[in-house]
Design a protein that fits this description.
10% helix; mainly beta; 3-stranded antiparallel β-sheet; 12-stranded antiparallel β-barrel; Lipocalin
């Protein structure tokens, strides 16, 4: 059983440490920077459309879709599980309220809703299916040096409502960003993502998933920014109610991002296309439209 108190204390401890670590990397010019009186606050609205092939669980970059599969276990489609997990389409919306405490540390918490369609059935009603809490922090900044910026993002997600198949995921991303120019408009990326899922049932076991990737980005003078990541996803398999066994896999994964930024690097609009092989390809398209209450 997961001790959420310990997990949250650990996360908060890292958040408190991160600003201090960033101060080590700051140069003398930072002392003259004018810091905003109120942090940037926004609803980081994200809408996902996902297609998942039969017999697969989809994790991908940062937004695991295994809740779709767990929903099928408790819905009218559970009788089809003896023949394997059905192909699925899902429409998800994330509503995390995000606070950029500084330009290096962000905190967020919110809920997600989804509607799903399984092979041979109609779309389900749109329901709130999970809540999440997390942070993102630059624990080291390049600042024109030779060592890249190091960013840590950690998210806890739990399914709603709680029940015999309540699932909790722990998603951690460590990314290295090496800027190739002073303005950080182009650079190289490398990172690793690890996702662990705990299910409150001895009959369901979902093993960890790891993604390792390389990539890069380029931002034009008009503030359009393109980012590409190519990597390998390694999933250690799953067992669902002794009916469906999903074999381990190691397959390619690709993510392409197109973002519109403002002059202060606030995101105004984002579009993401992702393909993951499971081993058949699964597709995910994400529309990101932040709603700002306070913008600096």
């Amino acid at each position: 059983m997961v001790n959420f108190g310990s997990v949250l204390k650990t996360a908060l401890g890292v958040i408190l440490i991160c600003p201090a670590a960033n101060s080590w990397a700051a140069d003398a010019d930072d002392e003259n920077d004018t810091k905003p009186a109120v942090p940037t606050i926004y609803l980081d609205l994200r809408t996902y459309y996902t297609q998942i092939p039969a017999g697969s669980l989809a994790f991908g970059f940062g937004h695991p879709s295994f809740f779709t599969a767990l929903r099928s276990l408790t819905g009218p489609q559970n009788t089809a599980l003896t023949a394997g997990l059905p192909a699925a389409k899902s429409l998800n919306t994330d509503l995390p309220l995000t606070i950029d405490v500084t330009d290096r540390v962000s905190l967020y918490a919110g809920v997600s809703g989804s509607s799903t369609q399984f092979a041979g059935s109609g779309w389900s009603s749109f329901d709130i299916t999970s809540w999440n809490i997390g942070f993102q922090a630059d624990i080291y900044e390049q600042n024109g040096g030779t060592f890249p910026t190091v960013t840590l993002q950690s998210t806890i997600t739990q399914s709603i409502p709680n029940g015999p198949l309540t699932a909790t995921s722990f998603n951690n991303i460590l990314e290295f960003d090496y800027a190739l120019d002073k303005d950080e408009t182009r650079g190289l990326l490398a990172g690793v993502q690890h996702t662990r899922v705990d299910v409150d049932s001895a009959l369901v076991r979902i093993n960890p998933n790891t993604v390792a990737y390389l990539g890069g980005y380029y931002q034009w003078p008009n503030n359009w920014k393109f980012t590409g990541r190519v990597g390998v996803q390694s999933f250690e398999g799953a067992q669902l109610l002794n009916l469906v066994q999903i074999q381990p896999l190691t397959q390619p994964i690709v993510r392409l991002d197109l973002d519109r930024m403002d002059d202060n690097d606030n995101r105004l609009f984002g579009l993401t296309a992702e393909i993951m092989w499971l081993p058949k390809p699964a597709y995910q398209l994400t529309l990101r439209t932040p709603l700002y209450a306070v913008k600096n």
